[in-house]
UniProtKB/TrEMBL annotation:
<dbReference type="InterPro" id="IPR042114">
    <property type="entry name" value="GatB_C_1"/>
</dbReference>
<dbReference type="InterPro" id="IPR014746">
    <property type="entry name" value="Gln_synth/guanido_kin_cat_dom"/>
</dbReference>
<dbReference type="GO" id="GO:0006412">
    <property type="term" value="P:translation"/>
</dbReference>
<dbReference type="InterPro" id="IPR006075">
    <property type="entry name" value="Asn/Gln-tRNA_Trfase_suB/E_cat"/>
</dbReference>
<protein>
    <recommendedName>
        <fullName>Aspartyl/glutamyl-tRNA(Asn/Gln) amidotransferase subunit B</fullName>
        <ecNumber>6.3.5.-</ecNumber>
    </recommendedName>
</protein>
<keyword id="KW-0547">Nucleotide-binding</keyword>
<dbReference type="GO" id="GO:0005524">
    <property type="term" value="F:ATP binding"/>
</dbReference>
<dbReference type="InterPro" id="IPR017959">
    <property type="entry name" value="Asn/Gln-tRNA_amidoTrfase_suB/E"/>
</dbReference>
<keyword id="KW-0648">Protein biosynthesis</keyword>
<dbReference type="InterPro" id="IPR023168">
    <property type="entry name" value="GatB_Yqey_C_2"/>
</dbReference>
<keyword id="KW-0436">Ligase</keyword>
<dbReference type="InterPro" id="IPR017958">
    <property type="entry name" value="Gln-tRNA_amidoTrfase_suB_CS"/>
</dbReference>
<keyword id="KW-0067">ATP-binding</keyword>
<comment type="subunit">
    <text>Heterotrimer of A, B and C subunits.</text>
</comment>
<dbReference type="Pfam" id="PF02637">
    <property type="entry name" value="GatB_Yqey"/>
</dbReference>
<dbReference type="InterPro" id="IPR003789">
    <property type="entry name" value="Asn/Gln_tRNA_amidoTrase-B-like"/>
</dbReference>
<dbReference type="GO" id="GO:0070681">
    <property type="term" value="P:glutaminyl-tRNAGln biosynthesis via transamidation"/>
</dbReference>
Length: 487
C-alpha cells in the first residue's frame, strides 16, 4: 500500500492511476501492409496504397505483429485469446486517411495479466503487483506537422498503419513512483522479449495517463486522461501536477470533468485538449474486411518457446549466485547490460566480484565518458581477463584500476597492458622487506608512537611502503611483513 498522499485543505487525498501504453511492434512492415517502418524517413516515403486508403485496397494482417503481441502477453502471464477480432473505431482526423482506425475493442488478442514492480529502488524486495486488463493490436495514425509552413499544416503518413500494442493497466497504481516503476518494468519486458524497442524519444513507446483523486477509502473519482506522454519522468510529473490540480478544483467547490489533456514539458503542467469520448462515440463495429484471428496451438507453442529469460527470472538467478538484490536489480534493468553481464559470467568471471566491478567500475566509467554498454570499449572477455589477473594476485586493486583506464582508452587486452607497462604486482618478499626497512628507518617518531600503542599508524607504514613500490606490492604480503617488522 502506497503512503503517497496529496495534502489538501480538507485533509489527505489518494491518487488513483492507470496507464494505457502504446508500444510500436518490432517488425519490418506495418500491421496491414508491407510498407516499411524505419524511424526518420523522409515524409510520405513509407506509405502503401492500403495505408493511404486508396479505393479497393484491403488490409492483410502481418502475422509477425500478431506473434510479437502474443509473446508480450505470455511474458506477463496473460491470457492469450485463441479467438480475437478487429473492430473499426470511427472518427475524422486529417492524418487518418480511412476515416477509421482498425483496433480491437470487444475481443482483444490478449486478456488479463500482471506485472510485478519494485517502487522503491533502495528496496527491490518490496514489490507490488499491477494488473494488466488487456493488450490489443491496432494501427497507428499519421502525423500532422504544424511547423513546416506559416499558414498550413502538412500531413506525414509514414506512421499510418504502423502496428501498435495498446497495453492497458488496471487502476492499481497509487503514486508517481509506482507509475514510474510500472513503466520502467514494462519497457524492460518489451525490450527483453524484443517486441518493442522501447525508444520513448522516437515515439515507439508512449503513455496515456489516467488520473483521479479521492479521499482514502472512498469510491473512485472522475478521471482525466493525459495523452501521449513520452518519458518516465514526464509521466511522473504529469501525475503529480494533475493530482494536485484536481484536489484544488474539488476543494474550491468545482468538479472534475472527464476530459483529455496534454502535458507541457516546459512548464510541467497539463491543459485541456477536448472532452473525453466514450466507446459509443466511436461507433465501433466489427471490421468487415478482416476475418477473426484464430490461433493454432503450434503457433502458441512456438511463441512460448521463443521467449528469453525475463528480468525477474534473471534477477533471481543472479541473487542465487550470491549477488545482492540491489546489484541484481541494476544489472537486469536494461537488456543490453544483462546480456553483457551474462557474457562476462560465461567468460569465467566469479559472480560476486564480477557484479561489484560491473556496477561500480564499468558503469561508473561509462557514465563518466557518456557511453552506454553497447558502445563499451571493454568486452566481456577482456573484463573477465582483468578480474582473473586480480584474483590470481597479478594485479592489486589499485593496479587493476590503472589497467582498466588504459583499456578504456586503447581497447587493449589487460595482459598486454600489464606486460607493456610493467604493472605486474610483486610478492617478492626480499624486495618488499628492503623497502619496509627504509620506511621504518626514516620514520622513527611514527615507529615509537606505534610501539607505544597508537596502532592506527599501521596504515601510515602500509601507505608509505605501497607508495615507495609504486603500488605494485602485494598488499597482503606487505601487511604480513610489516606486522612482523614493527613488532
Amino acid at each position: 500500500m502506497s503512503d503517497y498522499r496529496i495534502q489538501g485543505a480538507t485533509g489527505e487525498w489518494e491518487v488513483v492511476i492507470g496507464l494505457e501504453v502504446h508500444a510500436q511492434v518490432t517488425s519490418n512492415a506495418k500491421l496491414f501492409s508491407g510498407a516499411a517502418t524505419a524511424f526518420g524517413a523522409e515524409p510520405n516515403t513509407q506509405v502503401s496504397l492500403v495505408d493511404a486508403a486508396m479505393p479497393g485496397m484491403l488490409p492483410v494482417p502481418n502475422m509477425e505483429c500478431i506473434r510479437q503481441a502474443v509473446r508480450t502477453g505470455m511474458a506477463i502471464d496473460a491470457t492469450i485469446n485463441r479467438w480475437s477480432r478487429f473492430d473499426r473505431k470511427n472518427y475524422f482526423y486529417a492524418d487518418l486517411p480511412q476515416g477509421y482506425q482498425i483496433s480491437q475493442l470487444y475481443h482483444p488478442l490478449v486478456g488479463e495479466g500482471a506485472i510485478e514492480i519494485s517502487p522503491d529502488d533502495r528496496n527491490p524486495d518490496a514489490t507490488k503487483t499491477i494488473g494488466v486488463e488487456r493488450i490489443h493490436v491496432e494501427q497507428d495514425a499519421g502525423k500532422l506537422m504544424h511547423d513546416q509552413h506559416p499558414t498550413r499544416s502538412y500531413v506525414d503518413l509514414n506512421r499510418s498503419g504502423v502496428a501498435l500494442m495498446e497495453i492497458v493497466s488496471r487502476p492499481d497504481m497509487r503514486s508517481p513512483a509506482e507509475a514510474g516503476a510500472y513503466l520502467r518494468k514494462l519497457r524492460a519486458i518489451l525490450r527483453y522479449v524484443g517486441s518493442c524497442d522501447g525508444n520513448m524519444e522516437e515515439g515507439s513507446m508512449r503513455a496515456d495517463v489516467n488520473v483521479s483523486v479521492r479521499k482514502v477509502g472512498d469510491e473512485l473519482g472522475t478521471r482525466t486522461e493525459t495523452k501521449n506522454v513520452n518519458s518516465v519522468r514526464f509521466v511522473m510529473a504529469a501525475i503529480e501536477y494533475e493530482a494536485k490540480r484536481q484536489v484544488e478544483v474539488i476543494e474550491d467547490g468545482g468538479r472534475i470533468v472527464q476530459e483529455t489533456r496534454l502535458f507541457n514539458v516546459e512548464s510541467g503542467t497539463t491543459r485541456s485538449m477536448r472532452s473525453k469520448e466514450d466507446a459509443h462515440d466511436y461507433r465501433y463495429f466489427p471490421d468487415p474486411d478482416l476475418l477473426p484471428l484464430e490461433l493454432e496451438e503450434a503457433f502458441l507453442a512456438d511463441c512460448r518457446a521463443s521467449l528469453p529469460e525475463l528480468p525477474d527470472a534473471k534477477r533471481k538467478r543472479y541473487e542465487g549466485l550470491g549477488i545482492s538484490a540491489y546489484q541484481a536489480d541494476v544489472l537486469t534493468a536494461e537488456v543490453e547490460a544483462a546480456r553483457w553481464f551474462d557474457a562476462l559470467l560465461e567468460a569465467g568471471a566469479k559472480p560476486v566480484a564480477a557484479a561489484n566491478w560491473t556496477t561500480s567500475e564499468l558503469f561508473g566509467a561509462l557514465n563518466r565518458t557518456g557511453r552506454d554498454i553497447a558502445t563499451s570499449p571493454v568486452s566481456p572477455s577482456q573484463a573477465a581477463e582483468l578480474l582473473a589477473l586480480v584474483a590470481d594476485g597479478t594485479l592489486s586493486g589499485s593496479l587493476a584500476k590503472q589497467v582498466f583506464e588504459v583499456m578504456l582508452e586503447t581497447g587493449d587486452a589487460p595482459a598486454r597492458i600489464v606486460e607493456d607497462r610493467g604493472l605486474k604486482q610483486t610478492s617478492d618478499t626480499g624486495a618488499i622487506l628492503a623497502v619496509i626497512a627504509e620506511v621504518i628507518a626514516r620514520s622513527p617518531n611514527q615507529l615509537a608512537q606505534y610501539r607505544g600503542g597508537k596502532e592506527t599508524l599501521f596504515g601510515y607504514f602500509v601507505g608509505q611502503t605501497m607508495k615507495a613500490m609504486g603500488g605494485k606490492a602485494n598488499p597482503a604480503v606487505v601487511n604480513e611483513l610489516l606486522k612482523k617488522a614493527l613488532a
